Amino acid sequence: MKFAIKAVAASVILASAGGAFAQKGETVKIAWLDPLSGLMAAVGTNQLKSFQFIAEEFNKKNAAGVKFEIIGIDNKLSPQETTSALRSAMDQGARYIVQGNGSGPALAIMDALEKHNARNPGKEVVFLNYAAVDPDLTNSKCSYWHFRLDADTSMKMEALTTYMKDLPEVKKVYLINQNYSHGHQVSKFAKEMMQRKRPDVQFVGDDLHPLAQVRDFSPYIAKIKQSGADSVITGNWGSDLALLIKAANDAGLNNVNFYTYYGSVTGSPTAMGAAASGRVYQVAYAHMNLAGPLNQIVVDYKKKFNDDMYTGAVYHAFTLLSEAFAKAKTTDPVKVAATMSGMKFKSFNGEVEMRKTDHQLQQGLFISKWEKAGGKFPIDSENTGYTFVPVKYYEPFVASTPTSCQMKRP
Predict the structure, then answer these.
(1) Considering the domain 154-284+364-399, what is its CATH architecture?
(2) Which H/E stretch holds residue 392?
């Protein structure tokens, strides 16, 4: 009888704690907060579909045996709207947040979660950042609850300038970027790093324009033409890159190479087309034809949506979470965050590490060039017949940059 009472008591305790343990079939809600309206809606729509599609893949099999549910909320690319979206996500039971478009919204999430998690022990929420790349987010503004899955602006510029320094044709560089933190950092690091590696290179222009508001870039292209630049470096993304490239093609600016961060993002491949062949480069942690676990997902996604799955960090997110759940034997955000901090795991681009000091993922980077698809690189972008073909790969240590993060750990 005593044994039976103890067994019942133990089962009650286990049942009450059950929500904290990753068990086969347990549902983990992930809230996606990014734009579904405005000029960047096409980018957001693609990325939400990517999260939903890859969630379905991981629901078939993952290290922890959990089920993922994606809650999509439009933040309208606004920090203020993001704060409201975050409250809605938590009200719906999400303990994991993903966001990537814009470092302003990312910072709004980080600030809100620092306060929420401090005030609500037992209800903590973790933020996985898949594309907001302002270095400050893992330096002066770093947070224990924030984990970045993309390479930051400085890491990408480290790789890009390491490649560009060996190109004798690069002599005069024009900078054009969006007028917010990421754009400012692209400009800053381009000048600093190029000066260190190739002090002979001249910067002949440095423009900042409003984020997601410019519909005609021809005045900027006229300035680039007039400057005599042979190269343009831009961190622009979405419509701001697609319309910039379109304006360059329309103006016949065919003697200038573009070095981009986001050439494969919605709209830009179509804008580039055949006219930009051999003249646009991209620095990224992946490319459309990367062999390995991401390849079949890219193929299947295209078959299903007739669209490109270009945000590989989505795969990072599910791999990191499911493996951390399995290692921690729980889905509790406090224990999972502690497990993810410093964790190494195999992803589509080799072994990567979530650096413990700042929660910045350390990973290899590719320099790719816009060329005709075919041969070893058959998957094209946006049905253009062209794709980004890798020309150089840099190991994680090459692109890694130091951090000033003084992380406060709970």
Answers:
(1) 3-Layer(aba) Sandwich (3.40)
(2) strand 386-394
Beta-bridge partners for 74: 34
With contact defined as beta carbons under 8 Å apart, do 175 and 207 qualify?
Answer: yes
Domain boundaries, the chain: 14-151+307-362, 154-284+364-399
* CATH 3.40.50.2300 assigned to 14-151+307-362: yes
Q: Is 120 helix (H, G, I), strand (E, B) or coil?
A: coil
Report strand pairing: 126-129 vs 67-74: unpaired
Coil vs helix vs strand at 275 = helix
Q: Are 279 and 258 in contact (CB under 8 A)?
A: yes
Cα–Cα distance for residue pair 77/99, rounded to 1 Å: 10
DSSP symbols for 159-181: HHHHHHTT-TT--EEEEEEESSH
Reported as a single tens digit per residue, the pLDDT across 323-368 is 999 999 999 999 999 999 999 999 999 999 999 999 999 999 999 9
On whether the pTM is more than 0.90, the answer is yes
- Round to whole Å and give the CA distance between 135 and 260: 17
- How many other C-beta atoms can be found within 10 angstroms of the C-beta atom of residue 56? 12
Closest to 220 in 3D by CA, of 201, 184, 246: 246
